[in-house]
């Protein structure tokens, strides 16, 4: 019996998966691997369990492209709730502080302009950054104090989509390493308030857009019906200048629904 032979189908290319809230990125990879029976699957950039949105999956030879493209720009839709901070910066954490005024619309719009461009951002303690060989979130969950140095990040654009009942819906286009939880925290403090992410959706990454995303349920149905080829994109598809080759049916988002 030969060694080093991977079990599974020799599938190569990209699946533009839409990860639902409530599961880890690793769990999503495992589910895609089980559904497709692919020998090798990797994802294009971690999403926190509470987050949803685009989590492109690289199959087979496409996994070799991951290190080349993970540094690209990304886009998000953030729902930022004012009035409280949590230890994780999102709704899964414990409230650490409450209070502060709910910002007026005009002040919020002006504050968003302050965060556009190159700036220093302190990552949240609940992040995957290593501290002496240990993930920061592991230390934070153990009750240890975690202080991470600021990092240079770039936010290309911020747009307020809606604002009601102390919750701002904001579209973000940013560069590598920008934390949306830190943006919510810093925006709240800049306005003399407190804030955390209530919801987060990644809408674009690796040249893929939300309209191309398919759910795990849609993938499972496609495989059962022998239609996987309709959604498996070429290995080099993640480049922005290569047009999408998959049909626009069965997509996730406003243009159409499952």
Approximate shape: elongated
Following the backbone from N to C, one meets helices and strands in this order, namely EEHEEEHEEEHEEEHEEHEEH
**CATH C-level of the largest domain:** Alpha Beta
Q: Characterize the biggest β-sheet.
A: 8 strands, mixed
Number of strands: 15
- The count of domains is 2
Instruction: Give the overall average pLDDT.
Output: 85
Number of helical stretches of at least 4 residues: 6
Question: What is the CATH H-level superfamily of the largest domain?
Answer: Pseudouridine synthase
Unreliably modeled segments? 240-258
Question: Mind telling me the C-alpha Rg?
Answer: 20 Å
Structural class: alpha+beta
Q: Indicate the CATH architecture of the largest domain.
A: 2-Layer Sandwich
Question: β content, as a range?
Answer: 25-35%
Span between termini: 44 Å
The portion of residues assigned to helices is 10-25%
CATH topology of the largest domain: Pseudouridine synthase
Structure description:
By secondary structure, this protein is an alpha+beta fold. The chain has two domains: 13-70 and 206-230, 2-Layer Sandwich (Pseudouridine synthase), CATH 3.30.2350; 74-199, Pseudouridine synthase, CATH 3.30.2350.10. Helix content is 20%, strand content 29%. The chain is built from six helices and 15 strands. Strands 2, 4, 6, 9, 12, 13, 14 and 15 form an eight-stranded mixed beta sheet that branches. It has a three-stranded antiparallel beta sheet with strand order 1-5-3, covered by helices on one side. It has a two-stranded antiparallel ribbon with strand order 7-8. Strand 12 (151-164) and strand 13 (167-174) form a beta hairpin. Helix 1 (25-36) packs parallel to helix 6 (216-224). The chain is elongated, with a radius of gyration of 20 Å.
């Amino acid at each position: 019996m030969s060694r080093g032979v991977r079990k599974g189908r020799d599938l190569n290319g990209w699946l533009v998966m839409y990860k639902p809230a409530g599961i880890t990125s690793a769990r999503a990879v495992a589910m895609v691997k089980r559904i497709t029976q692919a020998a090798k699957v990797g994802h294009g950039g971690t999403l926190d369990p509470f987050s949803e949105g685009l989590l492109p999956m690289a199959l087979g030879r496409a996994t070799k492209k991951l290190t080349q493209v993970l540094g690209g720009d990304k886009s998000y839709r953030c729902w930022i709730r004012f009035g409280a901070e949590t230890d994780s910066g999102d709704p899964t954490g414990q409230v650490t502080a409450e209070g502060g005024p709910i910002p007026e619309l005009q002040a919020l719009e002006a504050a968003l302009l302050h965060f556009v461009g190159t700036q220093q951002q302190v990552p949240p303690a609940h992040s995957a950054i290593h501290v002496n060989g240990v993930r920061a979130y592991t230390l934070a969950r153990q009750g240890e104090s975690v202080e991470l140095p600021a990092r240079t990040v770039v936010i290309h654009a911020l747009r307020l989509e809606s604002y009601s009942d102390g919750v701002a819906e904001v579209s973000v286009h940013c560069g590598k390493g920008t934390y949306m939880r830190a943006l919510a925290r810093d925006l709240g403090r800049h306005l003399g308030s407190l804030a955390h992410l209530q919801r987060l959706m990644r809408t674009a990454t690796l040249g893929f857009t939300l309209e191309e995303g398919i759910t795990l349920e849609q993938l499972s149905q496609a495989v059962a019906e022998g239609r996987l080829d309709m959604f498996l994109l070429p290995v080099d598809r993640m480049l922005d200048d290569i047009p999408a080759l998959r049909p626009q049916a069965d997509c996730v988002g406003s243009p159409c629904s499952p």
